[in-house]
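Q: A reviewer asked whether we had any structural model of the full assembly, not just the individual parts. We don't, so I'm hoping you can provide one. Inputs are below.
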Amino acid sequence: METKPVNKPIIEIVRATKIYSPDVVALEDISLSVPAGEMLFLTGMSGAGKTTLLKLICGIEHPDKGLVEVAGKDLNRIKAKEIPWLRQQIGMAYQDFKLLADRTVAQNISMAMEVAYHNIRAIKSRVIELLQKLRLEHKHDALAGRLSRGEQQRVAIARAVANSPRLILADEPTGNLDSKTTKLVMELFEDCNISGTTVIIATHDNDIYRDADYRVLELHSGRFLPQADMTTSTSNNMP
Amino acid sequence: MKFISTIALQTSRNLQKTWPTQFMTLLTVSLSVLIFSFFFLIYTNMINTGEKLGDDLRLTIYLEEEPVLEMQAQLVRKIINFSPVEEIRFTSRNDAFKRLAIQLGDNVDVLDDLDASFLPPSIEIYPKKSLNTLAQIQRFSEYLSTLPGAIKVQYGQEWIERFNYFTKLLRIIVVLSGILLIMTATFMVAYTIRLAVVARQAELEILRLLGATNNYIRTPFLIEGFLQGLFGSSLGLLALFFLYRWIQLRFTGPGILQLVDFTFFSPPIISIIVTASITLCIGGSFSSMRKFMRI
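A: Here is a predicted structure for the entire assembly that you could use as a starting point for your response.
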């Protein structure tokens, strides 16, 4: 049997705990290793800790205990001037989109590439390419604030992948999408993954990973469920 | 090149979004530069005039008796010992009478019944240019009045004192208007940038999450400060230049401007004013960024 070579981990989390004031335990003693190039799903109920885990990985939050290492950098010890570099390596699609309502769709997507000083021509063509992939080409010059939630979600996803980052983190990327658009979004993530990008998707929607051969981790009250339980839980949800 | 074009794009976007505030700040900076440079222009011209008048400064010692040659040599020695001078000229009673007659011109007949020796002999002293402060002139004058045979020393004391006080007053005004310029340029630009930062807090937050470096976020604001300083000071100086031309046109002919050689700032002074304004505005912008961005 042919075994797939395991890449060096891009994410290493060792016994990380995150507690929000006063005593809300968001994550408790979790460990995770994600090899570069993997596509991984995080599942769990609301409040299970999925978003907190993604925030720890992209350095928006810091663990109260434990170690979080991304692209070889210990996020507790990372120098301030290295943070922008690290964030340029990570494309994050936020649950609340974090779009600028008074900017056009194209401008919102461009931002991710502009901060990395890509040239204007390359940015323009990449924006058009992504809008075509997500069936949003007709919204190029529309203000983000005037889009439907589903469209805003796709713009947020386009911005996350625009800079061709090494790691994509998507928080409920299909929450507002119909099945057809969900398929488009998943194809985009899979394309990114095929080209070597590590993709982590936090989702409630088990349809999007049901037939795929990806690792699925379930969080419950800030802890990973054992893989066996998780599989059961997943299969229980299957039709 | 990519950095420059990206930053230029960001700056132009910022300016488009905040142009009303930027315009008001620009006007304030221009007005401050205009007020400061107006007083500074008058001050520099007064200093130039003072220097010119200093060239004509002459101290006259009136004597009881006409000094004999030996005495003249002794007086010269004593004067030079106190302070080096350009020239010392002795005027006898007769010479003084002749000079007065020339000055009277057609009215010379008023001297007909007078004795030619009624005017006192005098020594006229033209000091060196190094003797340029009122206190130095006063000390020299006091010393001269102690010379043997001296009755009185004159040097247009009242006029020089007034001129000196006027120059001092101008210096204070220049300093005050300079402080005004510093405060308005720094604080106004700082507040404008602060407003822009607050208004764009959400955007800056997203930019940081996307991996924008400090330079990427800061540079457009610093460029805005630079532009405020450059255009604000240029507008202020341009307005002053038009004011200067107007004064020149309106006040040509006999009067104070004939006495004063009223000139505009030289190119190096203009560069210094513009550079100082730019530095102040960038400083204001930088301080705002430091306080509000915490990056």
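A: Points you may want to mention in the reply: Residues 105 and 139 of chain A are 7 Å apart (CA to CA). Confidence is low (pLDDT under 50) at residues 228-239 of chain A.
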